[in-house]
Design a protein that fits this description.
By secondary structure, the protein is mostly helical. It is about 50% helix and about 10% strand.
Length: about 150
């Protein structure tokens, strides 16, 4: 058994926290051999583990890249990166839920939680490019959220 239950069992409830409108209906468990993660029932998530400000900043940056002639490839790369990490729907949802739980509860070191995030995306057959983008977004910028949650 890797996942229990095998499918996400969540409901949409924006009344509690509009930034995390999805709520788990039952406990969800990941048993990856080296780590067992349990997300409790009624855990709130937004299904995006990357820093929200990063994707928003990239989207706002796109119009300014047209100012520099010859850098259309930069525009394309920034646009693709922003769209890939900003989308809360997709195969990465389960990984994001477990990752949010790990950052919230901090039951393991940050690098282990991030590694589990990457492994769960691999098990859920997320596109390898998206896996790399999500993983490096949380590795490079997730420390801010980690420290904020540690101080709660």
């Amino acid at each position: 058994m890797v996942f229990d239950p095998p499918f996400l069992q969540v409901s949409f409830d924006p009344t509690g926290d509009p930034n995390r409108p999805w709520v788990t209906n039952t406990p969800h468990e990941f048993n990856g051999g080296y780590m067992r993660i349990v997300v409790p029932s009624r855990f709130r998530t937004d299904f995006t583990s990357h820093p929200r400000w990063l994707a928003n900043a990239l989207v706002l940056l796109v119009p300014f890249l047209w100012v520099w002639p010859g850098l259309v490839w930069v525009l394309a790369a920034v646009s693709m990166f922003a769209l890939l990490i900003r989308d809360p729907l997709g195969r990465h949802q389960r990984a994001a839920m477990f990752h949010d739980s790990g950052y919230s509860d901090q039951y393991a070191p940050r690098h282990v939680v991030d590694a589990a995030y990457r492994r769960i995306m691999e098990l859920d057959h997320v596109n390898p490019v998206r896996i790399l983008l999500h993983f490096w977004a949380v590795r490079l910028f997730g420390g801010i959220a980690w420290r904020r949650n540690k101080n709660r």
